[in-house]
Amino acid sequence: MNDELRTLWALNGLDERLVTLKAALERFPALRKSLEEQRLSGRARIEALKKDLTDFLAKRRQLEKDIEALVAEERKYQGQLPLVKKNEEYTALLHEIAGTKKRASDRETELLTLMDAEERRHAEKPALEKDLAALEAEAAQRLAAIADEEALDQARVDHVEAERAVLLASLGAGIKARYERIRVSKGGRAVVPILKGACGGCFRGQPPQVLQEARRGDRLLTCEGCGRLLIWPPDSPA
Ligand SMILES: [Zn+2]
Fold first, then answer.
1. 27-156: CATH architecture
2. By the number of CB atoms within 10 A of the CB, which of 29, 44, 51, 156 ranks highest?
3. Kind plus residue range of the DSSP H or E element containing 170
4. What are the residue boundaries of the structural domains of the chain, listed by start?
5. Among 2, 6, 3, 8, which Cα is nearest to 168's?
C-alpha cells in the first residue's frame, strides 16, 4: 500500500472514531434538559402550594369581613328593637335578626371548613420543600458529573481532531478535497475496506480488475455503487 492510501486509511479510522465520539457528545443536552425539567416540576409544586395558601388567606379574610359585617348588622337591629312601637314592625325586625344570625352562622361554618382545608394544605409544605431541596441537590450533583463526562468526551474529540489535522495536512490538495467531500456526503465514512470482494460501504461486488488493483495498493479506487474510496484492508491477506 502506498503512503497516500495508508494515510487515507488511517484518516478514515480517525473519522470513524469521531463519528462515534460526536454521537456520544449529543446525549448531554438531553440529559441536562431532563434534569432541568425535574427541577422545574419540583419548583412548580411549591409554587402551586404557595398560590393555594394565598387563595385560602384571601377567602378567609373575605369570610371574616362578611361575618363582622353581619354581626354589626345584627347589633344594629337589636338596637332598634326597643324603639319599635308597632307589633308587626317588631316581628319584622326579629325576622331580620334571625336571618342575619343564620347568615353569620353559615359563614362561620364555611370559615371553619376553609380553615381545615387550609391547615391540611399548609401541612404539605415541609415535605414538598424537603423533596425540592433533595431534587435540587441531586440535580446539581448530576449536572456536575455530566459536565465532567462531557469535558472528557470533548477532550477525546479534540485529541482525534488534532491527529486527523496532521494526517489531512500530509495529503495533496486534490485528494484532500475529494476525501472531505465524500466524508461529508457519506456521514463521516469516505473510505471503506473491500470485504469478500465487495464494497464495505454499499456491499456492491467489485469486478476482478478492481480487486486486483486494490490488492496492489498503488492506486486510489472508487466504488461505482456508493462513490466511496475503496481500500484493500491492510490487515487482510493479499
Ligand atoms: Zn460502495
1. Orthogonal Bundle (1.10)
2. 156
3. none
4. 27-156, 173-231
5. 8
Q: What spacing in Å lies between the alpha carbon of 114 and ligand 1's midpoint?
A: 76
pLDDT tier, 237 (very low <50, low <70, confident <90, very high otherwise): low
Cβ-contact 60, 112 below 8 angstroms: no
Separation of 186 CA from ligand 1 center, angstroms? 11
Taking only the tens place, the pLDDT of each residue in 165-211 is: 999 999 999 999 999 999 999 988 899 999 999 999 999 999 999 99
Cα–ligand 1 centroid distance for 234 (angstroms): 18
Burial of 136 (0-12, 13-18, 19+ CB in 10 A): middle
Q: What pLDDT shows up at residue 236? A: 67
pTM over 0.90: no
| Cα-to-centroid distance, 141 and ligand 1 (Å) | 47
- How does pLDDT run across 119-131, given as a tens digit for each residue? 999 999 999 999 9
CA of 3 to the centre of ligand 1 (A): 23
